[in-house]
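Next comes the chain:
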Amino acid sequence: DILVDGKVCDCDVVVTCQVGDPVPLQVKLTNWSKHSVGPFALTMMPYQDYQNGVHNYELQDAITFVGSNTFYIDTVKPTKDSVYFGALLFLYTGDFYLNIKFHEDNCSRELPLSWLCLPSVHIRATEPVA
């Protein structure tokens, strides 16, 4: 589950926020399997989509994370979940996307490096209301 500014997000929803206001972000991983899973690394990468096949990931002057954009999750037991809390701060207006990936954080596993990607979250940063 992904919540941006307290609202559940999916790939069909555009979340609107204001430039200069921290935007709360929550990502919850629920283990529905019968076995414990982990360890994982959760990585969030903001980008802009130029609608021509080009994604710009060089956004250090436009977006900043309050905290880190990578979090380590040790183990998630069956039917339990692990929740990441953070915030984004948009410095400029525009349409941005957030790639959220879970990576296996254990070299002995045979899963690909990035094996679970959630749909991108679309966030529109607008001018502050006067």
Observations:
- The mean pLDDT is 82.
- The two ends are 33 Å apart (CA to CA).
